[in-house]
Amino acid sequence: MMKFDKTIVEYTAKLARMKLSDKETRELALQLADILKYIEKLNQADTSGVEPTSHVLPIKNVFRQDKVKKSLNIADALKNAPEKEGDFFKVPRIIE
Amino acid sequence: MSELHKLTANQLKQEYKNGKTTPQGAMQALLERIEKIEPKVKAFAHLPERCLAKRCQAPLTQKIDRFEVPGTFLHGIPVAIKDNICVKDELTTCASKILEGFRPPYDATVIEKLRNAGAILFGKTNMDEFAFGSSCENSCYYPTRNPWDTARIPGGSSGGSAAAVAADEVTMALGSDTGGSIRQPASLCGVVGLKPTYGRVSRYGLIAFASSLDQIGPITKDVSDAALLMNVIAGHDERDTTSADVAVPDYIKSLTKNVKGLKIGIPKEYFIKGIDPEVKSAIEIAVKVLTDLGAICKEVSLPSTEYAVSVYYIIATAEASSNLARFDGVRYGYRHQGEASMIDMVANTRGDGFGAEAKRRIILGTFALSSGYYDAYYLKAQKVRTLIKRDFDEAFKKFDCIITPTSPTAAFKIGEKTSDPLSMYLSDIFTISANLAGIPAMSVPCGFTKDNLPIGMQILSKPFDEETIFRTAFTYEQNTQWHTRKPKL
């Protein structure tokens, strides 16, 4: 289908917000090219007129009453945060 | 000297009822067993005495004679939990550095149900990081070893749960199965593992891998224990909107020793090049056993089987890449320190916190969903998924259940497949289709190789027809007794 190389890994890692070392990028390019070559087998399957399956059960939207229910309190929600301040999760600067 | 650690849950219940022992006695026997053999097996990510045994006080103070009362169905039965299922205030890390130190502020629904049934939560079991793997080598802690040969893998990703049950370190366990993660390790460790129908068991509190495929299920020493545990965990849950509002039968009632007239399909596409001749022969003998007991076994065709691995590694990685976007160092787990900007913090946290297989799957999944490639990979895979599902719909018009090997080989050596991800992915070749089609499937022990490694048989049936699986598996088990063999440790 296409050539899977280092440039695509770098681009995809950026989309996934995940830093990779040069070594990881090189290895992933080779391994994923191999895996994608195997996956190309899918092209042999005739899917003309076939609907895609995203979910195996007949599923419908599930609504509930628009009522306030008990939920996590702020202290519990913040308990696992690497950094917090007051009632907030604390992160590095977002806007320059 | 008691052998309480060897007993099934049903046997333990009987011992309690007869006043021969108490939950404290059973727990003590298991803790001694763990102390002795856990250094060899390494089935646990977080040991019960360190993290969970202290929480067992409450159920232990209940009166034992109440254990038959509904709601105390598993009273005093120790159950180990895979480390991707949330247990309130206890370490739940998915065997990943990125979730280090995470203690969930709530219980998963299955945990709530276990507590209400009086079970003893008995440690968190090791796994492949985020359930990505078939060997338990992708844990951030250590690889778990197969109790039958500690130079070999226990299978994965629920390898810790399967190894702990096989090694008699715990009475029963919960695993999760996205492409075979309950059945393949159960097969390789010689125990029983069931992936229920998609939607049968609530996934609230299961840390998500691939949301259209994941199911929680039992890993047990025999088929009756699997029915016992399913009776507790199955059922609709409003907190998991994908859980099905379908009545749950009493699975214990389906444990009948009778397969007379049962129509069993044997798919020819599962007896392929690359299957170990010993595995092939064990399945053929098992089919013969069932035929002799009155089942009607005939060949069936599932023509789209050859595409299952390809479809799976597009759909599962695509869903994983979205599900794992939440691990960004903001709300829980590991955070890389020292960055001035948010984007750098997130990228370094993820680069540092995820292991090699998680990174591989995130990149593959992100790529399959990315602009320009979506139609060629993701959409195409979803369409072929329809073909795979149709194969089963057709087959179940003629057959009550289908029997295949669970895994093409017995347990392989530690390190054998780590440098070749594709060969590792292909070890799931027989288990993946059940997840893609959403149908239930169980692995039951059906023999041993010359090297004394367990072989598993997979039984699949229609959506929400776990009963036919229980009936077939129970009949086979009671007529063969493979499940009574124990590893020498």
Automatic annotation (TrEMBL), chain B:
The keyword rRNA-binding does not apply. GO terms for cellular component: glutamyl-tRNA(Gln) amidotransferase complex. It is an enzyme of class 6 (ligase). It holds the Pfam family Amidase. SUPFAM superfamilies: Amidase signature (AS) enzymes. The active site is at 82 (charge relay system), 157 (charge relay system), 181 (acyl-ester intermediate). Residues 28-469 form the Amidase domain. Coiled coil: none annotated. GO terms for molecular function: ATP binding; glutaminyl-tRNA synthase (glutamine-hydrolyzing) activity; transferase activity. Keywords: ATP-binding, Ligase, Nucleotide-binding, Protein biosynthesis, Transferase. Its EC number is 6.3.5.7. HAMAP family: GatA (MF_00120). Belongs to the amidase family. GatA subfamily. Heterotrimer of A, B and C subunits. Allows the formation of correctly charged Gln-tRNA(Gln) through the transamidation of misacylated Glu-tRNA(Gln) in organisms which lack glutaminyl-tRNA synthetase. The reaction takes place in the presence of glutamine and ATP through an activated gamma-phospho-Glu-tRNA(Gln). This is Glutamyl-tRNA(Gln) amidotransferase subunit A.
